[in-house]
Structures are given as structure tokens and as C-alpha cells.
Amino acid sequence: MQTIRRETDVPVRNKCDVLVIGAGPAGVGAAISAARSGARVTLVEYGGKLGGLWTLGLLCPLFDNRFHEGLNKEFREKLEERNAWGGLWKISFDPTQMAMLLDEYALAHNLDVMLYTMACDPILEDGVIKGVIVQNKSGAQAVMAKVVIDCSGDGDIAARAGAPFEVGRPDDGVYQPMTMMFRIGGLCEEYSEDDIISWYRAIEAAVADKEKLLADIPFNHPALIRLPRRGEALIQWTHIHKRFGADGDDHSCATFEGRAQIRKAMEYFKLIKDTVGEVYLLELPSVIGVRETRRITGEYIISDEDVKNGVKFPDNICNVRFGVDIHEPDKPRQTCWQHPGFDIPFRSLVPLKVNNLLTAGRCISGSYVAHAAYRVTGDCLAMGEGAGAAAAEAISRNIGVRELAKIRMSRVISTCEKAGN
Ligand SMILES: Cc1cc2nc3c(=O)[nH]c(=O)nc-3n(C[C@H](O)[C@H](O)[C@H](O)COP(=O)(O)OP(=O)(O)OC[C@H]3O[C@@H](n4cnc5c(N)ncnc54)[C@H](O)[C@@H]3O)c2cc1C
Question: Which of 173, 158, 130 is nearest to 364 (CA)?
């Protein structure tokens, strides 16, 4: 590829304690928990709302929510008070109300939020991350920080800082497809709250040409997710295969493909008026849903065996209960299976090779299979909380986050030794 050289001075916008990249479930968890632990936090988000896929991507239910205390419980209770919680399996929420709630949390915790801002390049000194160059309508600026937490989903900053990473299935490197969600209105009262699939079976029964159905929208186990407000649902149906969410051109093309599939979906809904009512397209998301890109390799990689055996770790920050859920990279179906529940150790949030950097959310260090379970939003939120608190602790003790990880482990080992285990 042809390149050009660019060297410019960049103004320093601010210096903070903890810089969080991305305001999805992991990022809001990290920012709020770091602020609650006394850190000055800057939160950089390239969309115009907080919440990541919850709000920009129109995505719920909030899986694994009920297994965690902390912000999972707080958000659920606040949304319940606003009649914005319920719907499918009583764990779904209104994305608009979630966006409003997260704004209130940002204000209440004095977060320095930069919306419409892309985190572009890490600022490194001798393998230590010192800040990040961000870009927005003001141009390029530097945000300096004692600890950076990459919650971008794609591990953009960690990868550019030189942290190693893995992508996709171990044998061929392919990854789960993207999905563009959409919100429908006009769903008939009789459609049952927890019935995710019978509308699709009705479409299958109504169309003569099943191959065309799958060619138009290549997924045969879609979901209708009833929202708390009657008559509204999110539809998870479109599938865009073999486009990489961390590649700019692929990401853009997939977005067009997603909306093209939604156009076809709305035509299919007309065939099943008797089952669902005269539904209409109420809202498109601001972003396409990306399931899987980089998994940043950390001090520990959560393995397939860990998942199968329900491993417990002494430096656990989040116990994952949600089952493995793989939207197959090259088939129109899903593979799901349960496990006993496994821990995420703090070490899997500490990337190799770069110091004072953490990850949280779907880009942490785990296998293809482990990722397919811990990627759900209740776990990403809990991981973010763990990362934010750890960043603040490292700063207050004047040590690096890798050293903190070692101290956490050695503390556990010495306690075990004292106990004679
Ligand atoms: C179609 C689909 C359906 C799903 N269904 C469910 C479900 O029903 N329930 C569930 O719990 N989970 C579900 N998941 C999984 C879940 O939504 C994601 O794995 C989860 O949102 C990941 O959280 P995160 O905080 O790591 O990333 P994200 O939610 O992706 O948030 C990342 C944030 O970072 C921002 N960002 C990215 N790069 C940059 C950058 N360089 N600079 C600045 N900002 C940046 C993005 O704008 C975004 O706001 C689904 C996923 C998909 C794709």
C-alpha cells in the first residue's frame, strides 16, 4: 500500500487519571467504577450516545444481569422505576431510556465525556502507554492518562500499541457474523411476550422458496425481542458474514448490507400479518452489531477447558453464566451449549507487552469459545467495573496494573500457604 508521512504537533487537551476508550457496557462500567474509586476519568466515545451496542446498536436483553450485583443491579432497578425494564424474559429494556439513564450517571459521576470522538493512536514511552491521540471536530488532540482502559470492543488502542491479539476460530481464523438490529412497532397484543421464534416459522410456512429466504437473509434462528412498551420489539435476524468489524471498509459495506437485509425483512413481515399484526419499521440502529473482532492476549488466556470445567480463579472479577453462543461464521445457524459457570481472572484484562493498559468487554483475552460466552453485556459491564476499580487502585498505590495483577495473585498464594493448602 502506498503511504505518506505525517508529522504534526498535537495539542494536549487534558491529563486525567484513567482514560476509558469506548462507552459500551464495559466502558461505562469502567468509567463509573474508576470515578467511584476517586479517579479523574475521561471517557472517549465515537458515537453520540453512551451505551455502545445497548443504545447505538439497539440491543437487549441484558444477559447475565441477574447474576451480578453492582451496576447490573443498579441499572435494572433504575430502569424498572421508569417502566423501561421487562419485555422478553423480563430482562429486556428500552434502549432510549438506557441512553437517558447513562447520561445521568455520567453527570452524577463527573465524568469528562468526549462524544463524537475517535481514539486513534496510543502515545507510548518505553512500552508504557502515556495517553491517546483522539480526533474529533476540533481536530487531533492528546489525552494523557496514568492508566488507559481499552473498552472499544475491537481493542483498537491495545492492538495499535503493539499488544498481541487473536482473531476468529483457531483452525481457520474466521469469526462470527455481524447483525444489524431493528425496532418494529405495531406488533399485535396477542403475540406472546416470550415467544422469540414462531413469527419466523410462520414466514417459513408462508414462502414457497426456502432457499430464496435464506439467500435474502442468511440466518434461520432469528429472534423477536419484546420490549417493555407494548407493540414494540427488536428483531435480530440479519446476518452479514465474512466482513471484519475492525476493518473500515468492511465495516461500512456490512452496514449497507445490513440495511438491505432489513428492507427484505420488512417485506417478509407483510406475509405474516395474521401472526404479528401490521408491523412497521420504527427505528434503525446508529451502528451495526459486531460480534467478534480482536481478542487482546493478556497475562492469562481463558481456555476452552476453563469454560467446560467451570474454572474458578482467585483473582476473579466476573463469573460468567451465559452459555456459549456461536453464530456460525459460515452457516446460517447458531451453536449453543451450557457450561457450569466460569471465572474471568483480572490477569486476562492485562495485555502483554504494553504497560499501564487494561482491556474490558468483548476484546479481553480468551479463546474463540470463551469469548462466545463472556461477550454478553451483563458480563462486559461487570468486567468494566472490575477494570475501573483496579485502575484506580493501581494509581492510588503508585504501581502499574501488571504489578497489581501480580500482587493480587501473590496475596492469594500467601493466604493459601498460611492456611496450609
Ligand atoms: C447482533 C448482536 C446481538 C447481541 N445480543 C445480545 C443480547 O441480546 N444480550 C447481550 O447481553 N449481549 C448481546 N450481544 C453481545 C454484546 O452486545 C456485545 O458483546 C457487547 O456490547 C460488548 O460490549 P463492549 O462494551 O465490549 O463493546 P460495545 O458494546 O461494542 O461498545 C464499544 C464502544 O466503543 C466505541 N468505540 C469503538 N472503537 C472506538 C474508538 N476507536 N474510539 C472511540 N470509541 C470507540 C463504540 O462506539 C461503542 O460505543 C449481541 C451482540 C451482537 C452483535
Answer: 158
